[in-house]
Amino acid sequence: MITPAPREEWRAALAGDDRALPEHAPEWIDALCADGRYADASRYYVTDDGRAFVLPLVARRGPLGLGGWLQCFPPSWGIGGLVGADADADVLRAVIADLRRTRSQRIGLRPDPARWTAWDAAVAGDRTVLTIPRRAHVIDLTGGAEHAFSQFSKSARRGTRVAEKSGVRVEIDRSGALLEDYYRLYLLSIDRWAERQHEPRALARFRARRRDPLSKLRAMSDHLGKAFVIALAYVDDRPAFGSITLLGQTAHDTRAAMDRDLVDKTYAGDLVQWRMIELACELGCTAYHLGESGQSTSLAQFKEKFGARPLDYAELRIERLPWTPTDQRLRSLVKKVLRFRD
């Protein structure tokens, strides 16, 4: 094991894994560490039989430099896990054992949902590993764009055609030039979600700017370059629907934002999804991740109409103190006080 992972070996492991996520790239760690809160703690592993893997990882020091956290990745920084071909349960057990030896206060891993089977086997019966159930949706792109479109529901295909005929204009930006337009739309979505969740708008905007400040998205764009894509649909020159998609061997769509009034009338969201799936297929991506879905029925239905299938997996945490149970209880109390509706 070598830490931080040497970049040349890291890129070789990435290139040899056709299911690698965009967040597996070293540039993602660079973006994550840009504001100085985290340090690169990536780990490069070579097994006795010559297989090589990298675990993208960041560290955050604890009080007075003691303990600290290791995360892959921090909240709102995507999904990761081990990158490299042929990682089986034995390899993952060895990785977990290595992480334990760091004696960090808290270790968090959110692995690729499409590879959960091996992780599940690796932690089976281990009561020291806390598993937090998650659900994500993924579209298989191995059949190409036409096959992907054939897997759309009738309503999604119709919505895409209606948006095209009604003059919805989709701009695809790989330079970060549309980031401010997108961010204004994102904050508008935060206001709508706050109303639905019975959350004070000021609190919702504070949490959104703390979780995803514009500076964070700029760092992603700066470090990922053309792998960071903003798709923005305009209706009568007004932003209607936007999303950010990360590109690698697979694609990861994230942070949808919309003006509900414009989207409902024009199906702009359907057209944005189709344009980005087309681009991902054109670039040879094997899958299109639509991100976390939780237990939201409406969100699952939206994703599944584009041919996405649900994948149940879990976030893994190894903690020396009960950080997660305490955090969950506090969040539950605050939500109860606010009469928050998830």
TrEMBL record:
BioF2-like acetyltransferase domain location is 151-293
Q: Which residues form a coiled coil?
A: none
Pfam families of this UniProt entry? Answer: Acetyltransf_6
Q: Transmembrane segments in this chain: where? A: none
Quote the InterPro entries the UniProt record gives.
Acyl_CoA_acyltransferase, BioF2-like_GNAT_dom, PG_Glycine_Bridge_Synth
> What's the protein name?
BioF2-like acetyltransferase domain-containing protein
